[in-house]
Amino acid sequence: MDDKVVKGENQSDGRWIQVSVGLSLLTFIGVVVSIFMTAFQDFECKPATIENPLHSSPFGDSAVNKQPLGPFEPVIPGVMAGTTRPRLVLATEPYWTPYTFIDPRTGLSEGVVVDVAKGMSKLCDLDITVTQTKWTECWADQAMGPGLVNGDYHACMTYTHSKGARDRQMEFSHGLVRNSKPAGLLVRLNDDGAPEIDGNHNLNGTKIVHVNSWAPTEDGLGFVQNQCTGERFSGYTMIPSSAENPNDDALGKLLDGTADAMWVFVDQSEHYRRAGCVAGDPNKKSSFPDWDCAKWAGFGTKFAFIQTGLFDHAHNGTTFTASKKGSGLNEIINPCMERFMQTKEYYEICAKHGVAVDCYPNTFFPKEYSIKNTPVWEMKTKDLPTSCTDGYCACPM
User: Fold this and answer.
1) Which backbone phi and psi does 42 adopt, to 5 degrees?
2) How far apart are CA 226 and CA 221, in angstroms?
3) What count of Cα atoms within 13 Å lies in the side-chain half-sphere of residue 301?
4) pLDDT digits (tens, 9 = 90+) for 327-363
5) pLDDT value, residue 110
6) pTM
7) Nearest-CA neighbor of 134 among 262, 281, 243?
8) How far apart are CA 292 and CA 255, in angstroms?
9) For residue 206, how many other CB atoms are within 10 A of its CB?
């Protein structure tokens, strides 16, 4: 046989062998890929999940939703986000007894909201830190303060859910206590004990000082009615107190004639007298060194309320948190509040700080707290059984 023919046939056979091997290899690879695709066809890259008790029923329903691992809360600068539970930084100025104050024995913040924060942390597996700030860092001059705007903390505590500017800019948690914070108007008393402005006055042409950064807010007076005439107040000018010691400064502006009346919580004088100052002893130093007991000792002799029981300045009373509008914080706070406020610990906190009569009663409250005796500062002016010498002037006859 010709050598060239033999050689050509051998080369042809070699090429067929190479092609056959290549096809076999491709078939093998295809089979392997097919196996892997079949095995993982339902696989998706999903975040790890844990059971989140915050999304169960507020009263202990066993249904639990699945939530992705953190962050659980709005992220703020300089604070490590919660990866297995919400981590919240809540701020308050500790100068509103009994809701928030400094214990002189320990130098630490105490009060209703501090104790509630501890209780909610345990019940709902939250990581809550309460820090100190100034009221003006949360709210002042009809606007959110820089501390809240800049995200120094997630929310501020103990704020009244007021109508008007606050309601437009902030979102509020549920009320921690019932709406038992009526506003009123303080005025100076003449030497004969009669008010310089009586309860029938519509405030036209007057200057009204409001407590800067506090409720009732300056726009709140526009939402209420005169309790003696049933008419709206009009024609007045609002002026702010200073940001430092605003309650004392506002009272000072009333007493020195800068203002004709003071727009304030009606129970504020009671807080000063009961919690910090001793009635009848103007020289007594308050446990809160910034409080001016001498000024507040004039209640019923130098100044008195001509309007009381004005509730319509607010949607709700003292809340647990106030945060930026749209923060979403209520999705964390409110379900836990609803659960906590059904506990024995909630009652014990209310009783400890002397506000059980204002708290929402649950099954652990004694029966007497279910029927509330209305204190004088919550009564409408027209219903007052008191006189100006008591600090609460009734409507003129």
Assistant:
1) -95, 5
2) 10
3) 8
4) 999 999 999 999 999 999 999 999 999 899 889 999 9
5) 95
6) 0.74
7) 243
8) 13
9) 17
